[in-house]
Target: Thiamine-monophosphate kinase
Amino acid sequence: MGEFDLIRRYFQRPAAAGVEVGVGDDCAVLVPTPGARWLVSSDMLVEGRHFLSTVDPARLGHKALAVNLSDLAACGATPRGFTLALALPRVDEAWLAGFARGLWALADASGCPLIGGDTTQGPLNLCITVFGEAPPGQALLRSGARVGDEIWASGRLGDARLALEVFRGTVALGGDAFETVRAAMECPTPRLALGQALRGIATAAADVSDGLLGDLGHILAASGVGARLDVDALPRSAVLAAQPAALQRECLLAGGDDYELVFTAPAGARMPDVGVAVTRIGRIEAEPGLRVVDASGAEVRHGLRSFDHFQE
Ligand code: ADP
Ligand code: MG
Model:
């Protein structure tokens, strides 16, 4: 199968609503919503770095798009389309069919059509760029947190890291427990509805991709504020809650790949009900830095850091 047959078979579909020209020409042509702002983000997934070669291709297709949609969610954007740049070592039709199935399922569920891309031979590597929209002045940014705001997290944190530790062989889990955390790692849900519902409510937001300490730290740095974070309040699964306290903290504070939203809102703000739990986890303070405390208010010395590709 040649390059263009491959594109036609797996990645070309009739153009979706709002897409004047999709896959098949030199450029895609999108119809912008009058007055809206474009929000654009890219995320690359490299084999061995972001995923294991043995991962189910449908889950990989899902995750490649999910991590990108998570950035749109963090900014409160409505998805409009995405491009896919794909390097493949060889044409493996079973793999491509699985990958495309996972990718399209999430694209359809999110109203985010595939509008173009690039396909080349090479070491397995995926790069997606997502395009979204938000009304002017309503994108959620990292820079808007104010002293006195409360800090919130969606869903549950830490399961993806726990799964990674099982793959690394440092933690042993039973079958069902492992499948639960493995699904969190391989099949994250981008919080698009929550992000959009937080427009006009959240003062700042980010998605938790590299670990809560780091991603909340980005909000603090961009906003010029500090915070107190209650580690005992952090939302966690029953599987994680059954682990030793030190491991729980490591997964909750420094684990990446959660793709939940961490955001700030004025104290007492009403939280939207979009079917995703949100938990209050701390407060913004004037004193710079991030102080992790336990339920009694005592400071927790953790020595943990979030993920950084060039500092390990
Ligand atoms: P060009 O040579 O003009 O860069 P290509 O030959 O690479 O275009 O691609 C042909 C068409 O197929 C373009 O519309 C491009 O956007 C689309 N395309 C290529 N690879 C992919 C892919 N992996 N997923 C979706 N669309 C793709
Ligand atoms: Mg061209």
Notes: DSSP finds nine helices and twelve strands in the chain. The pocket of adenosine-5'-diphosphate (ligand 1) is lined by residues 7, 11, 23-26, 84, 86, 114, 116-119 (CB under 6 Å). The mean pLDDT is 96. The chain has two domains: 3-134, 142-293.
